[in-house]
Amino acid sequence: MDMGGSVIEVCRRRPPKLSAAARKKLACPGRHGDATCATKPLPPPPETSMHKVALVIYSQLEGSGRSAIYRQMMFAQELQRAGDDVCIVFDGAGSVAAAALADPGNPLHPLFESVRAQVRGVCRYCAKSYGVLEAIEAAALPLLGDDRGHASLRALLNEGRQIVTV
What is the pTM assigned to this prediction? Predict the structure, then answer.
């Protein structure tokens, strides 16, 4: 099997007792170059398949973290438009970013508001550690602490989600 592209080819070797006409009809169009291969491409997966994705943000809104968070939120919008199941988790230093994004004075606030419904929550332990617990609570963002006080990433896997981190 060739797993390199979106089309997977399955090679089925035919017994050599085929007639010449049958061998010509089944001639391998691919790399085998012989008449004993009947390569049949499988159709690509439908584009309407729903993806389950968790976007986990560890970055702060400083330096390259700003563009990484911006792209995560844009990606969340893209997934939403496609009808995919997306959630956003702020963990580690990302809890500081969550507090900043929830501030109406932040330039990225309108973008944050457009994906706010997808915010699963902010790690409670990290929000307290980084001193933004009160700001997170004031913004009415959910707090997560299902893994010894931290947000559980395994719970996201158990939901069948792909995890994308920045």
Answer: 0.72
